[in-house]
Amino acid sequence: MTATQHPADRFVSPDGVYLLSHSVGLPPIDARSRAVSDHFGPWETNPSDAWPAWLETIERFRIALATLLNSTSSSFCPQPNVSSGLTKVLGALPISRAGRRPTVLMTEDAFPSLGYVCQKLGLDVRYIGRAEDTLDARVWASHLDGVDVVLITHVHSNTGQLIPVAEVAALADERAITSIVDVAQSVGVIPIDLEAWNADVVIGSCVKWLCGGPGAGWLWAHPDLVDRCEPVDVGWFSHEDPFEFDIHQFRYAPDALRFWGGTPSVVAPAIAAHSIELIHEIGVEHIRRHNLELTDRLIEGLEGLVVSPLAHHQRSGTIIADPESATDAVGVAFRNAGIAVDHRPSGFRLSPHIYTSADDIDATIACVRSIAS
Predict the structure, then answer these.
(1) Is 320 within 8 Å of 330 (Cβ atoms)?
(2) What domains sit in the chain, N to C, each tagged with a CATH number?
(3) Is this structure's pTM higher than 0.85?
(4) CA-CA distance, 206 to 33, in Å (whole number)?
């Protein structure tokens, strides 16, 4: 990125105002060409040696994540999505092999996939109710008795709440409870330092704020936990030496790749590696400052209609606006004005990224005001 080039110029620019980065981030302008080069290049030009080139691409994906999140690449394992990563980890934990049903604590506002995984694995799931203040670590502490795993959603997608992960993970560590953190709605817009968190497992994806498209999920496992985990859903890429090809000798990979499985996708990590590198080049701290400036502008302009947290330390990258009885009319007005948002029972979700401008925010505010008047 040149000194005079604005970060927004590095991403595609659809018509209208785009505020859906909590759902699908905009791709870098050269994402298509990079995917062709990294994925199709070896396949087309030298297919007999494609796998070494593809594995280099996947290692680049792991290194990009490690650089962004302050860790080592050996602690990351590609996954197709968050649900897959959670399934692999929960089934591999020592407590899951102890002949009893582990107890998992999560919030009712967590993304439903997390609950689905725990239920179908036969785990005992406890929920912190929606009426409780999950922004307060003391609320989490009051629910930890008898818990084996605490599943922390860093950002609740439907409320815009930013959960104090470090505090909750520390509480779990004091009680020898395994902590798993879902960062799908935060990574790329909220600065994350995995070393500072000291969680046991972190799972995420690249389709949202990382602008890396679907299929590039991942899990991070603390080195102290990896050796104690024995995944059941394995494949040749979970092996210490995938190309050994001895059916009688399975040995777990010594690092997080033991969670991998069978033949992996290459195109998704190829696309995502490039976008993660771009996000890191721009700087998540810079993206966060820009996001806070624009969400401050939204909060001021929407005149009391914001129902998500207002304080910076409790606010995610997404503002939830509930225009009360005018929701249907505002939805039509947004579409007519070319403003891309979405609607959940909690309200409209508005997510400004680095490619969002102050003019975009002002157009959004004017749209809401036109209906309110």
Answers:
(1) no
(2) 31-280 (3.40.640.10), 284-372 (3.90.1150.10)
(3) yes
(4) 18
